[in-house]
Structure formats: C-alpha cells, structure tokens
UniProtKB/TrEMBL annotation:
Gene3D superfamilies recorded: Tetratricopeptide repeat domain
Source species taxonomy: Bacteria, Pseudomonadati, Pseudomonadota, Gammaproteobacteria, Kangiellales
InterPro entries for this protein: CellSynth/LPSAsmb/PSIAsmb, LapB, Rubredoxin_2, TPR-like_helical_dom_sf, TPR_rpt
Role of this protein: Modulates cellular lipopolysaccharide (LPS) levels by regulating LpxC, which is involved in lipid A biosynthesis. May act by modulating the proteolytic activity of FtsH towards LpxC. May also coordinate assembly of proteins involved in LPS synthesis at the plasma membrane.
Keyword Transmembrane helix: yes
Source superkingdom: Bacteria
Organism, as annotated: Kangiella taiwanensis
Mode of membrane association: Single-pass membrane protein
Protein's name according to its UniProt entry: Lipopolysaccharide assembly protein B
Amino acid sequence: MNQWLLYGVLALLPLAALSGFLMGRKSRKGKQGNSLSSNYIKGLNYLLNEQPDKAVDTFIDLLKVDTDTVETHLALGNLFRKRGEVDRAIRLHQNLIARPQLSSKDRNTALFQLGLDYNAVGMYDRSEKLFNELLADPVHKNESLVQLLNIHQLTRDWDDAAKIAEQLQSSIGVEQTKPIAHFYCELASQKRQEGDIKAALANVKKALSINSDSVRASLLQGDIHLQQKNYKQAIKSYQRILQQDIAFLPEALPSISEAYHHTKDRTGYKNFLDKSLELGAGVSVLVELSKIIQHDKDDRAAAELIGGFLQDRPSLKGLQRLIALHIEHAQDSAKPSLQLLDDIVEKLIARKPRYACHNCGFETKAIYWQCPSCKEWSSVKPIKGIEGE
C-alpha cells in the first residue's frame, strides 16, 4: 500500500467507525440489522482491498438521513470540499437535499453548502441560483448576499454586483460605497471601450454620486473628457483629486500636462503645480515643476527648488532629478561619478514597488483598484517616503 493510499485509508477509519456506531443503533430498533451489517462489512472490505473511493460511498449510504445524522452529513461534505474532493461533497449534499423528511432549516443549510461546492469548481450559474433562492431565508440571507457579491465580481457582472452590494449595505449596515463606486467605474470603462461615451460618463457620474472621494472616477472622467478634446472639463475633473486623495495625483500628471498644453495655459499649469505642492503633493509634482522653472529660468533655479525639497523630504526620484541638473554643469572629472550615481539611483527606483496594499501589504509597480491578494477595494495606495512619493 503506497503512502498516499495509506493516508486515505486512515482518514476513512473515523467514518467507518461512525457508520458502525449508527448501524448498531439502528439494528437495535428494527429488522434492518442484517442488511446494514452486510453493507458495513462490504465497506470494510473495500477499505481493506485498497478501494477507498467505493468505501466512502458505502459508508455514506449507511448514514441514513435523520435528525441524528444531518450534522454528520454536513460535516463530511465540508471536509470533502476542503480536501478538494468537491465531487463527493456535491453528491453528498444533493443526496441530503433530496430526502423528503428533511426539515426546512436543514434543507436550506444543505443548499448553502451545495452553493459553496459549486463555487469551488467554478459552477457560478448554479451557485448563483441557489444563493438567490436563499435570500428568502433570514438565517442565510446575509451569507448568501456575500457569496452573490463575490460571484458577480468574479464573473465581472458589475451591474448586478452593484445591486447586491446595495442590498448587503442595507441588510447588515456595513459601508459598501467604495466598492459600489468601483463597480460603476468598471461599467464606465466597459462602455467607453464599446464607444458609448454617453453611458460611460453617466456611470462615472453615478460613481461620484455614491462616493464623492472616488479618485478612480475623477481620473476616468478626466480621461474621457481629454479623449473628447474637452480640455477644460478634463482639467476640472483631474483637479478634484487634490481634495479626494492627493497621493494619486502622479497618476494624472501626464494627462493634466497634456490638457493644459492644448489650452495654451502654461501659467495655469504652473499655478496648479504650485498649489499642489502647498497641499502636500509628492516628488513627481516637484519634478514636473522643476522642468518649468528650468525652462523659464535656468538649471540652477530648478536645482535649488529640488534641493530645498529634499532637505525636508528625502526622495530617490528627487535625487535623480537633482543629479541630472548637475551633470551638465559638472567638471569633466566629476561627470563619470555623477553618471554612475545616476545609474545606481535609476536602478534602485526601477526595482522598488510604487504601490502597497494598506490591508495586506501586497506590493506592486502597477496600480490596482482592487488588491490582487486580499481582494479589498481602494486599499492599494502610492508608497510615500524616500523610495516613493
């Protein structure tokens, strides 16, 4: 007997013992004893002959469904699902539900477990149907709403996800405005890809009405206006980020610069950057402002701006910009060293993540509105400090 089969046989021994115990109880109550005994022996034979699959089915059949064994069936089903034997869990729960003598309470519990089984193998259409049925049951309503919300997110059914999240918020009183706003942003992105700009803007507006602090909605609205060449409207949308979460401003900077360029409002752009720094914007805004100072004045003025900032807020990105400003004016003997230092800083910046999840600590170089690790919405934020903004 190989090692894994031995483990399987050992795992089945408690089930065999339980079946034997229940068989003994039943045999004392009636004339079923001989039949049950023969099936019990058959199960043991399967076990001894290294046929654990058949043994499991035989022992499960011995567990007649009544008030004494429902919890045993449910526990076994849960165990099978956790061990990855979902087909057995499904068969067991289906068998349980089919019993006419099952109480309404136990049936609903079995239905919920069957829904979890279907989820485990990606049969979301079947699990969705079961969880929708259980919404009428006060005991399982909230758990079913949670499962339905997860299903709609996995299947990217954002319209239904928003509706279920609203029901969940009303039912359990837990704030769902952030994820709901993201669901409408997802819908807006879909409509934009389909070329339905009117519907895209309507969904963005809906997102902002639900969560006025949605940076994603402002970015998306600004991008749509920029695409439509509504530059002033785009700027207005992007500027909202200053009050929503200024840490995300670097995400919009290239687009803001483009919008101001098309409006030929260079002074307005500089004033916007000045205001952003006053409100606590990070080094990306400083670097952008230094380029304007460099153009309007000279390299020295730009270097002084960067140097003053770095004294209070050290930053690799700021240091790289300062090195670049000094290389052109350095003596020939110093240029190789400065260039080497610039290369080292650039490699350090390239290796470091730009974002981190405040919920689970997941780090990434790309922005995610939903953390890929913990699945939390709006938890991934730009990293601040010497290695970030």
